[in-house]
Specification:
The chain has four helices and 22 strands. With 346 residues, it is an alpha+beta fold. Strands 13, 15, 16, 17, 19, 21 and 22 form a seven-stranded antiparallel β-sheet that branches. Strands 3-9-8-5-6 form a five-stranded mixed β-sheet, with no helix packed on it. The radius of gyration is 21 Å and the shape is globular. Zinc ion binds next to β13.
């Protein structure tokens, strides 16, 4: 352990000296990194994604959405409840997927969806006359049809329930074998993973009302290739089986990582498997997580904007080499963050 922390702090210092100063534009150095102290900074590097871009060599974080139409897409299915209309914006909901539904009608005041034993509240995201909810299917959810019940309340006090059937389909996940190095063998103990999931569940168990994302949706946190996919079944050292809760992005140590969208930092600290880890609460049950950092640049409770640098890539936790693990949790379910970054969101 001592050797490892010595190694880590040496790498950390080296990074500060060689990496960070060389990578950041002059303007950013003045605000955060010019003090030469290796403590994680709580101030932001830059309020705009453009100014936070590294100037040489490093892959540049993207400031554009990966895709996605700007306008509201046409509903795939419309169900009329009499006074309220339920619109389903997707054809199928894969395991680990997110689907948008909306409710509209004269005098609609609020609505709540009941789907696979959970309540998902509708929210007024755009002031466009629709209330929206994000439906999710757990990565382990059996592929079949499930009832969706939407309870609508009108301004005059009346209520109405609109029902539909949603089909959950298989996620088409792949399986891979991984080797965890000897010095981190304790991290394949299923109890360590269980304890970490319990910690995370407490972080994600919070519906806040402000919507953190904007028309750009969720941006890639670094401009790099997506490598290991979401949902992958991982067999560690031929013994333990686990699921990949996010996507891996290729990176060396020391690449500035940007917030995918605006929100509030819900967690910033060390976890066993995720290493130095940051979670951002984007509101309405949507969270993004960024793992294995060498440095964290934000603190819990801090407001962040899309594109703001929140930390620096590294190799901490259960990692077999430097990379960025990027993940998303919605309604308590791990969902495919790369898919969500490409889809239309209310
Ligand atoms: Zn990963």
């Amino acid at each position: 352990m001592r050797n490892r922390s010595l190694l880590l702090s040496s790498a950390f210092l080296l990074l500060m000296v060689l990496g960070v100063f060389a990578l950041l534009p002059a303007a950013a150095q003045g605000t955060t990194f010019a003090t030469n102290t290796p403590e994680p900074s709580t101030s932001e590097v830059s309020p705009t994604p453009e100014a936070a871009l590294p100037t040489n060599g490093t892959p540049q974080p993207t400031t554009e959405p990966t895709a996605g139409p700007p306008g509201r897409p046409t509903a795939r299915e419309t169900v009329s409840g009499g006074r309220a209309t339920l619109e389903i914006m997707f054809e199928r909901l894969p395991q680990g997927g997110v689907g948008v539904v909306s409710v509209s009608g004269d005098g609609v005041e609020s609505a709540s969806a009941r789907f696979i034993n959970r309540n998902m509240p509708f929210f007024d995201a755009r002031g466009d006359g629709y209330l929206y909810a994000l439906l999710t299917a757990n990565i382990e959810q059996s592929a079949r049809a499930y009832p969706l019940e939407v309870a609508v309340t009108f301004a005059d006090g009346e209520t109405e329930t609109v029902t539909a059937e949603i089909t959950v389909t298989g996620g088409g996940f792949i399986s891979s074998a991984f080797t965890v190095p000897d010095d981190r063998l304790y991290l394949i103990d299923p109890e360590v993973e269980r304890a970490e999931f319990a910690r995370l569940a407490a972080v994600f168990d919070n519906f806040t009302d402000a919507r953190g994302w904007d028309e750009r949706g969720f941006l890639l946190p670094i401009a790099s290739a997506l490598t290991a996919p979401f949902g992958e079944v991982r067999v560690l050292n031929d013994t333990v089986q686990t699921r990949h809760t996010g996507w891996d992005l290729r990176a060396t140590v020391g690449v500035p990582v940007m917030a995918s969208a605006g929100g509030t930092v819900a967690f910033a600290g060390l976890m066993d498997i995720r290493g130095n880890y940051v979670v951002i609460d984007h509101g309405h049950g949507v969270y993004t997580g960024y793992a294995h950092f060498s440095q964290i640049h934000v603190t819990r409770g801090q407001e962040v904007t899309a594109g703001q640098v929140i930390g620096v890539t590294g190799d901490t936790g259960r990692s077999s080499g430097p990379h960025l693990h990027w993940e998303m949790n919605v309604n308590g379910d791990w969902v495919d963050v790369a898919n969500v970054s490409r889809m239309w969101l209310p």
